[in-house]
């Protein structure tokens, strides 16, 4: 039994010696890597400080995202304007469309008829390059940017662009959106059927 115990001790001594050698090799490597990381961190901090000299002058953070309300005082409220008309007008302006400036009409009619605000504008862009290529009847502008009711020699005439937006918005709401048909591809099958 003593021989077995002493043999195990010798084996453990050998592995302990190997571990000590491994540790002796790893210590300088770990020291080098930690020195390199610390140097890199200092360089980054210096670059940030040089590129932003006012960094040290910034105010300290408070614990509140906003100052707490005080009883008996009033709070200011910021009402942001609806950006949807501006988005439509910006798009029309970028493309040189005669419908530019009517973004509010598209949005008002979309809201009134419960349809997406961009839908009628998108049809106008697709059907007439947003009003640039509309049919005329005997030299008279049709104001029909939607290709609505245009087939053969028949051309649906509108009094002006606003009238067209109102009529087409109501039609889309009544015939499609109120019936649960909201996907553009499904609407297109009826709105612009294949030629016969």
Automatic annotation (TrEMBL):
Entry keyword set: Membrane, Transmembrane, Transmembrane helix
Spell out where the chain crosses the membrane: 29-48
Q: What is this protein called?
A: Mannosyl-glycoprotein endo-beta-N-acetylglucosamidase-like domain-containing protein
Q: Which organism is it from?
A: candidate division WWE3 bacterium GW2011_GWA1_46_21
